[in-house]
Amino acid sequence: MASQDLSPLRFNPKTGEAYIPFPAPHTNLILTPPRLTDANANYAMMNDPKVISTLEGPPYPYLESHATEWVTSITKEAEAALQEYKDAVAQSTDGSRKLVSRCPVRYIREVQEDGTDVYLGDVDIHRCGYPDVQDAAERARLCRENESRELGDPELMWCIGDCLASSHHGKGIMTAAFRTLMTEWYVPCMGVKAMRVEAFEGNIGSVKVFEKNGFKMVDTVPCPKLNPYGVLRTGLHVLIWRASST
Asked: Which residues contact 105 (CB under 8 A, 6 or more apart)?
């Protein structure tokens, strides 16, 4: 039996791990699934003030047990996402493929000269939870409505979460990572037609990443809050991308 064409995924010939390479000039970077061995790197990143100051959600203090639990959870999700894609390919007819609901590769890694790699960051896509909507009942209504939409629906809104090692900020890596995922997976494999992202007010770097990928700033929602790390957040920038807008 002929092997499945699982493009755009490629597979490491030694480990069998799925990956998507970055285009030039970042040819030493790849996107892979998370690994159970990433817990230490995740723990270190989630304790870097330059990283966590831009995030909402990680526990504080962030313990090694949190890292182990998180990496275990998303590794299982990635395995399920890969199997979903394999099943979709197997069921394809006339050259068309069934849309899938997840992406199996999300971790950014820098490949070293000896073939090993270093974890640099994470890009996640999920159905939107509308964190900027302050009214709990309205937020719940929007989430229910969004969850009910079928894959490929132009009104199905997806949200993005991302983080990058502070040692690699300002090098265009996150811009390239998101563009690669958008063009190679989100749009063709998941049928994504609408995305939104929230960035804390003043987080210009994150805003620029998404504006460079076609997102438009649509609102800045006031929501003053002192986070557990002692950073005062005054509001959320909301940016939206639609397939028809690019």
From this structure: 9, 18, 19, 20, 31, 32, 33, 78, 181, 185
Per-residue pLDDT of the chain (246 residues; tens, 9 = 90+): 346 899 999 999 999 999 999 999 999 999 999 999 999 999 999 999 999 988 887 898 999 999 999 999 999 999 999 999 999 999 987 778 899 999 999 999 999 999 999 999 999 999 999 999 999 999 999 999 999 999 999 999 999 999 999 999 999 999 999 999 999 999 999 999 999 999 999 899 999 999 999 999 999 999 887 777 777 889 999 999 999 754
| DSSP three-state, residue 109 | strand
Q: Report the number of distinct structural domains present in the chain.
A: 1
Enclosing H/E stretch for 3: none
* CATH number reported for the structural domain that contains residue 100 in this entry: 3.40.630.30
In a domain, 5, yes or no: no
